[in-house]
Amino acid sequence: MRQEILVVDDEASVVEVVSLYLKRDGFAVRVARDGREALAAVDEKAPDLIVLDLMLPEVDGLSILNKLRSNPETDVPIIMLTARGQEVDRIYGLELGADDYVTKPFSPAELAARVKAVLRRGSREKEGVGERPLQFPNLRIDAKSRQVIVGGQNVELTATEFDLLWFMASHPRQVFSRDQLLENVWGFSDYVDPSTITVHIRRLREKIEANPSQPERLLTVWGVGYKFEPGTG
Q1: What's the confidence (pLDDT) of residue 58?
Q2: What pLDDT score was predicted for residue 156?
Q3: Where are the alpha helices (DSSP H) in the chain?
Q4: pTM
Q5: What's the CATH code of the domain at 69?
Q6: Is 114 in the same domain as 140?
């Protein structure tokens, strides 16, 4: 069965071109032209991924993103479409849990590549992963169930957040640059703002660190990148 993409944009030319490229790559495509229509479409049937423009009539894209991420039952991968001047909204969208973003004007071929990369990451959950859970003091990461347990409590992560944490925890104390993390977790580094990594690291710290402002697990190596510290215990 073909994977289905919901394209949410009020610009007819964008919808037409994006739909053409996605269909050419074998995806089924549904379209919503405003925020209310998008929410109704998701309620009717959750797609495999949403391409979501932030500037929408009726209900804006950030409100849609916030609503979807507030409901664990609609954990659908989301790629934001943002204008060049929307850096603040883009960062806020990543903090709300968007998986990726593409800045307008964009190459439809690049967007299609991003869609395939995000779906590849998300498919790891459905396929199951054979690796044994990673166990650290007060932290357990299970790739098969996609569960993260901190101090005995289950912590909800987006698919991208989990993949980033799993990758870094699988290579404890190894320092990775932002480009290396983009290549290994996102699947590419071209055209991606390195601040994407910064936002995801901050979100992970807020979820797994006892004191996010003084992290003990996800450490910054100034001038280089980040590393995962396994701790002792």
Answers
A1: 83
A2: 86
A3: 12-24, 35-44, 61-69, 87-96, 108-127, 159-169, 178-181, 195-208
A4: 0.69
A5: 3.40.50.2300
A6: no
The tens digit of pLDDT for each residue in 32-88 reads 999 999 999 999 999 999 999 998 888 888 999 999 988 877 778 999 998 866 677
Last residue of a domain, one of 125, 150, 173: 125
The distance in angstroms from the start CA to the end CA of the chain is 47
Residue 233 lies in a domain: no
Which of 62, 96, 125 is the endpoint of a domain? 125
Pairing of strands 49-53, 4-8: parallel
Kindly state the tokens that stand for 45: 């049937």
212 in helix, strand or coil?
A: coil
What per-residue string of b and e applies to 100-139 under the rule 16 or more CB within 10 Å gives b? bbbbeebebeebbbbbbbbbebbebbeeeeeeeebebeeb
Q: How many CB atoms lie within 10 A of CB 44?
A: 9
Do 205 and 177 fall within a single domain? Answer: yes
Q: Which two tokens stand for residue 87?
A: 């850096």
Which amino acid type is present at position 175?
A: V
More confident residue, 71 or 123: 71
Structural domain range at position 209: 128-228
Q: Is the peptide bond before 105 cis (omega within 30 degrees of 0)?
A: yes
Number of structural domains in the chain? 2
Q: Give the closest residue to 112 by CA, choosing from 7, 22, 12.
A: 22
Smallest CA-to-CA distance from 182 within 162, 172, 169, 196 is with 196
Would you say residue 137 lies in a domain? yes
For residues 111 and 29, state if they share a domain: yes
Q: Identify the pLDDT of residue 103.
A: 85
